[in-house]
Design a protein that fits this description.
The chain is an alpha+beta fold. It contains twelve helices and eleven strands. Helices cover 50% and strands 15% of the residues. The strands form four sheets. The protein has a five-stranded antiparallel beta sheet with strand order 4-3-2-1-7. It has a two-stranded antiparallel sheet with strand order 5-6. Strands 8-9 form a two-stranded antiparallel ribbon.
């Protein structure tokens, strides 16, 4: 069978009022009868931000994890970022080899893109719970990234790639996406009302669509990107923007939303107990030193304990030492 290269033409529709993204794109799917992968037109309606979160949660250095993302959204969604050509037909063996080539070719680039988005999203939605950002809205934080010395990693990506997307009835992407209410009203006078909440753009670059998606989400007060307090994955809340847990299955067929509060309570109790033990040891060594000011060995032991504690805590945070091993050391002091 003669094979022709796919001429990708992907369309994306964002509806801000109903908070979803509709995608029409070309992909390959398995034909059970012919045991081959063949071209078809694919259509997906996705809640705004969900595909971006799936991207953020993918470990692109891991072949199987990347394949999960591809199985969900298709190979053509990322293949355009490489120089590898995509054809309308593959045998099963050829398809698997092509997917492996795409992953190996793109894994470093995709990890870089992912970390770029994480840096901005962490700031825009204040995922680190910084006090100085608590009174600001996501759109205000986005403006800080755009206009101040605090540089936006996504914005640098936008500028470096010279992304010039033309939006339906809105003109240049930059003009529309960073325009505030006063200017938006002026633009709206010349815009068909059918397009006020929904607009369409064409792009074969998924990174471009994520940039638009993120920038537009910041303008919707009732949506956000959060990081699950239980599993650490990024997610879009179902109902309230202050939700703490996602709906991913965590254990025993239960979701993080179901087990998260209980696990958090247990963790806090354990941390409080660990902190109590640390303070007891600290106070014991401190009092011994103060009661024996002439004993330099006691003072050395106390200073050594503090320094060693800092080193071990860093190892625990980096995963090089378990909390149990740390507590065993603490109890021996």
């Amino acid at each position: 069978m003669e094979r022709f290269e796919l001429r990708l033409k992907n369309q994306f529709f964002i509806n801000k009022f109903n908070k979803y993204k509709f995608i029409a794109y070309q992909d390959l799917r398995f034909n059970q009868k012919h045991k081959s992968y063949e071209f078809y037109n694919r259509y997906e309606k996705i809640k705004l931000g969900v595909q971006l979160c799936d991207f953020l949660n993918t470990d692109f250095s891991d072949l199987n994890n990347t394949r999960e993302f591809i199985n969900k959204y298709g190979i053509t969604i990322i293949a355009h970022l490489s120089d590898i050509k995509i054809y309308q037909y593959y045998s099963e063996k050829e398809y698997n080899e092509m997917v492996d080539d795409v992953i190996n070719n793109l894994k470093n680039k995709l990890e870089m893109y992912k970390n770029t988005f994480i840096a901005d999203i962490t700031y825009i939605y204040n995922l680190n719970d910084l006090e100085e950002l608590s009174d600001l809205t996501p759109i205000q934080r986005l403006h800080i990234l755009r206009d101040s010395k605090k540089e936006s990693e996504v914005r640098k990506l936008y500028d470096s790639n010279n992304l010039k997307l033309t939006l339906n009835n809105f003109g240049d992407f930059t003009e529309f996406s960073i325009t505030r209410e006063a200017d938006a009203q002026e633009i709206a006078k010349n815009v068909n009302t059918d397009y006020l909440n929904t607009y369409c753009f064409e792009s074969n670059d998924i990174i471009q669509t994520f940039i638009i998606e993120l920038f537009e989400m910041t303008e919707i007060e009732s949506t956000a990107i959060k990081k699950c307090k239980n599993c650490g994955k990024f997610f879009v809340p179902d109902n309230r923007v202050d939700e703490l847990y996602c709906n991913s299955i965590y254990e025993n067929n239960k979701t993080c939303k179901e087990v998260g509060p209980f696990r958090t309570k247990q963790k806090l109790m354990q941390e409080n107990d660990d902190l109590r033990i640390y303070r007891n040891v600290y106070q014991k060594l401190l009092l011994r030193t103060r009661r024996n000011p002439d004993n330099t060995q006691y003072e050395n032991d106390f200073n050594e304990f503090k320094n060693k504690n800092i080193q071990l805590r860093e190892k625990v945070e980096k995963g090089k030492l378990t909390q149990t091993e740390y507590m065993e050391w603490l109890n021996k002091q």
